[in-house]
Amino acid sequence: MQLAILAVLILIAVILAPWLIGVAVALVAAYGLYVVAVGALVALALPVIFLWVSFTQKKDSSEPPPITGKRVPCRHCQAEMPDYIVFCHNCHGKM
Questions:
Q1: In the predicted model, is pLDDT for residue 94 greater than 80?
Q2: CA 48 distance to own-chain centroid
Q3: For the ranges 12-21, 53-62, 86-95, the one whose mean pLDDT is highest
Q4: Residues 15 and 52 in one domain
Q5: How would DSSP label each residue in 33-77?
Q6: Which of 93, 59, 57, 56 is nearest to 77 (CA)?
Q7: Is 71 found in the same domain as 93?
Q8: Are residues 72 and 50 in the same domain?
Q9: How many domains does the chain have?
Q10: Is the domain of 48 the same as that of 66?
Q11: Fewer beta carbons within 10 Å, N or C terminal of the chain?
């Protein structure tokens, strides 16, 4: 999914490239090469940092840990719940 978003953003940048080149030339004329170079480095660094963080984060498992111990059915929805809980996780009724 993230690669598809990145591909769309690159496509948008390619489509807007002639316009962006004109803006870059105007910025160089107005502010100087140093400011534009720093801005370009920041603009290039942000997606790289975003991708680095998103690929190096630990992925949480979608499965909760197994519940051990005695289980009892909820008297409202009949979902099996641990016997030590007060309210049902499914219907939120009192156990």
A1: yes
A2: 14
A3: 86-95
A4: yes
A5: HHHHHHHHHHHHHHHHHHHHHHHHSPPPPSSPPPP-S-EEE-TTT
A6: 93
A7: yes
A8: no
A9: 2
A10: no
A11: N
3-state SS assignment for residue 18: helix
Residue 34 shares a structural domain with residue 70: no
Mean pLDDT of the 8-30 span: 76
**Does 9 share its domain with 38?**
yes
> The tokens of 66 are what?
């197994």
Q: Tell me, what's the pLDDT at 67?
A: 66
Least confident of 14-18, 71-75, 77-81: 14-18
Whether residue 48 is found in the same domain as residue 84: no
pLDDT of residue 31: 81
CB 82 within 8 A of CB 67: yes
**Whether residue 42 sits in one domain with residue 75:** no
| DSSP three-state, residue 30 | helix
Does 38 score more than 80 pLDDT? yes
Q: Which domain holds residue 73?
A: 62-95
DSSP 90: T
